[in-house]
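pasting input
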Amino acid sequence: MTRQTILHDKHVALGAKMVDFAGWHMPVQYSSIIEEHKAVRDGAGLFDVSHMGEIFVDGAGAKDFLNTLVPQDVAKLTDGKAVYCQLTNERGGILDDLIIYKLEENNYLIICNASRYESDFAWMVAAAAGFDVKLENRSDEFALLAVQGPAAVQIIEKLGVSTDQQSFSIKPATIDGVPVWASRTGYTGEDGWELMVENKYAPELWDKILTLGAKPIGLGARDTLRLEAALHLYGNDLDEYTTPVEAGLSWSVAKDKAADYNGKTVIMNQLANGTDKKLIGIKMLSKQIARHDYEVFFNGEKVGKVTSGGVSPMTGSNIALCYVKNLKEICPGTVVQVMIREKLHDAQVVKRPFIEKRSGGK
Amino acid sequence: MSDYTEKILCAKTHEYLLDNNDKTYTVGLTDYAVEQLGDIVFLELPAAGVEFRKGENFAAVESVKAASEIYMPISGRVVEVNDAVVDSPEILNEDNYEKGWLVKVESTSDDTTLAAEMADLMEYEDYKEEVG
């Protein structure tokens, strides 16, 4: 049974093309993916991401419990701050990527991927034995609306929410008397907010944000936007057999964290001694598009695979994220080849992200 | 466009075939296929002179969303290629007939075989019903 967010009828009324995604019936595009992509880079876009999961962790043991789950140091979070995390297994493999928010002392919110939050919750419940914590999966109660783009800040202000807010922070606010959690985060490489509200308030808030000038954006442009910003997609670029170090996420791993967590031995060993595979960004040197699962070659040898690939409307090139053998010769500037319809096509390794980060806040 | 929909035959794999009444046939993508693909960003077409069997993959189209193969609706030899649509694939999103056709072919079959190959294709209305 395909599930629907509380905003489903809004998408249909706007003429969106609907698709099944992670068990949800979601809008893939309203007009055109490229137009929607540019609308977010040039102005502001509104995304329904209510399919994502919200897990609340409360209790005196919350901080220590969360610290056993992720390579990041949750103890360093101050009230209202957020951190990008990976939920790791014993091998350091990634079960999901998350954002953990410290709402207040002993009270945390975790935003999880739509396809993963049920298994994440089961994993956390099993891991919680012995900790003084209460876990609640409240994903069905909340809608999540993302307002993204350089003009997001004006829209948030017009909603009556102060925009004097740091990047990667969350705060309670009210919009027309409705309580919301306003978080300055997103998945586009742009400045923006994610507004979490109880389902019943979401349709009105959706309409209001559209009247303030944001364009509705579907999952198609969400994917091209995050790829251009070189943000990982769980299931494509991250999985149980890939560690944060291999995924190019070492920057997010705490190097001096005292507490033990799942996969710490593997992850610390990889940080010290390197990995067998690594994530790279490439730009196609021909007009072909590298897509998920296409093979990557270097000096005539198969060295890896594309995990996400597509167009980059802002650079005009076709771009991809790939995992390749960790050879030092494969670095920005190196030419590799991608097998596309049984022919090899040149691509150049480039720095990630593919476009300059323009996130706001401090 | 209704002009075209009355004259074309369609394959289940979403190609149309238009009889030019000069022994050549124009092959293109149906409006349904174009709509499903969304923003079209890349086309790979064969060179003139190359022969393909009915059902053989002869071209590729890529939209922002996905890559798709394109199949020959009848056995034939390519006699003309629409270079303009290769240069500007977005043309296809606006017009899949007049400007956005792909190739013109000459049949390489005898009349009986060609008739059988054409009988396997559908009238536009039937095709629309089939793809829903």
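fyi Chain A touches chain B through 15 residues (CB under 8 Å).
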